[in-house]
Amino acid sequence: MNYTGPVVSNAGPLMVLAKLNVLHLLEVLYGRVQFATSVYEEVVTAGMLQGHDDARTLSLFLNQVKWSPRSVDTDEIPADIRTLRLDRGGKGYAGSGPHLAQ
Fold first, then answer.
1. Is 88 a residue whose pLDDT tops 80?
2. Tens digits of per-residue pLDDT, 25-70?
3. Is-contact 44 58, C-beta < 8 A?
4. Of 12, 22, 43, 89, whose CB count within 10 A is highest?
5. What is the per-residue DSSP string for 49-60?
6. Which residues pair with 34 in a beta bridge?
């Protein structure tokens, strides 16, 4: 069953699904998943520099399905979320959409 609304993910689900080698389930279940540039930098860029296999797995998957990170403008983040103590990645995906894959 394909979900039709926008789905946004933070780093955690992407890392776990990459470790389990089941990233294809994201495409099967949702068609497309959005993620912030800060999430990509945390999981793929930093992960590959640290030698994490799941970072390479995720990078290959993203290239295969042609999904790219999305830059999120601070104005897109709802005011109540802007006041929370989120790390850069959390703030990066908070404004991307209403449905979070967590």
1. no
2. 999 998 999 998 999 999 999 999 999 999 999 999 999 999 999 8
3. yes
4. 43
5. HTT-HHHHHHHH
6. 8
Segment 17-31, tens digit of pLDDT: 999 999 999 999 989
- DSSP characters over the chain: ----S--EE-HHHHHHHHHTT-THHHHHHHS--B-BHHHHIIIIIHHHHTT-HHHHHHHHHHHHHT---B---GGGS-HHHHTS---HHHHHHHTS-S-EE-
pTM (two decimals): 0.73
Angle between helix 11-19 and 53-65 (nearest 10)? 100
Which residues partner with 36 through β-bridges? Answer: 70
Q: Token digits for 10?
A: 């933070």
Residue-range domain boundaries for the chain: 8-101
